[in-house]
Amino acid sequence: KAGVTQTPRYLIKTRGQQVTLSCSPISGHRSVSWYQQTPGQGLQFLFEYFSETQRNKGNFPGRFSGRQFSNSRSEMNVSTLELGDSALYLCASSTGWETQYFGPGTRLLVL
Amino acid sequence: GENVEQHPSTLSVQEGDSAVIKCTYSDSASNYFPWYKQELGKRPQLIIDIRSNVGEKKDQRIAVTLNKTAKHFSLHITETQPEDSAVYFCAASQGGSEKLVFGKGTKLTVNP
Fold first, then answer.
1. pLDDT tens-place string over residues A17-50
2. Which residues, 6+ apart, have CB-to-CB distance to A17 below 8 Å?
3. Do A98 and B98 touch (CB under 8 A)?
4. CA nearest A31: which of A45, A13, A42, A12?
């Protein structure tokens, strides 16, 4: 099976802009979770979607949002970008029961 | 909410030695504990996981132990090799939840 894919792999934006990241899960997986990875805070959970519904949410401001489509692909949106949003954004897919497999990530740089 | 502490933050061993990384968790409801290995510039890769109904699990040179009473779990790597050099993350979650709470990571260096 093909692994989790994410697009784009790299992104440079300026403060105030918005960005949309995409994640395609492993075929047959219905859950997609998003994580932010930074050197200071490590890996932090953003949210999880299962069958097009947000099932879990982390402690991030409302500028961070997401959605999932009927084919299980997921998008994450960050509005009004801040310098502190610079990070590696990872998505992970699972069948919906625990074992998660990560994508390669999207590295976002906010200038 | 759940909090996962991971120690040490860095670990340097000689090739062939064993390496042990320890994690503690705070929420007694957590019952799933995966370990991920992340090489520089790569995605986290699941290397082993354990559920709370099991005390120990082994996969070749890697083993994980879980002490539910003390709320801690450990990763053991035997006969370390240079390719084991990476950052290792422990995590915890509750059954049915895909919300993984991660430790801060341990940078393991295996010296040839």
1. 999 999 999 999 999 999 999 998 999 999 999 9
2. A81
3. yes
4. A45
Using alpha carbons, list the distances in angstroms from residue A74 to A36, A87, B3. 15, 18, 27
The amino acid sitting at B99 is K
β-strand pairing of B62-67 with B72-77: antiparallel
3-state secondary structure of B95: coil
Nearest Cβ partner for A45 among B44, B99, B103: B99
Over residues A61-87, the pLDDT tens digits come to 999 999 999 999 999 999 999 999 999
Amino acid identity for residue A95 in this structure: T
Map residue B47 onto helix, strand or coil.
strand
Evaluate whether B98 touches A48 at the Cβ level (below 8 Å).
yes
- Interchain contact, A99 vs B42, CB within 8 Å: no
Question: Would you state the torsion angle of the CA atoms of residues A87, B9, A3, A59, taken in this order, to the nearest 10 degrees?
Answer: -50
Token pair 């075929």: residue = A27
Q: Is there a contact between A9 and A52 (Cβ–Cβ < 8 Å)?
A: no
- With a CB cutoff of 8 Å and minimum separation 6, the contacts of A52 are A67, A68, A69, A70
The nearest CA of chain A is from the CA of B32 a distance in Å of: 7
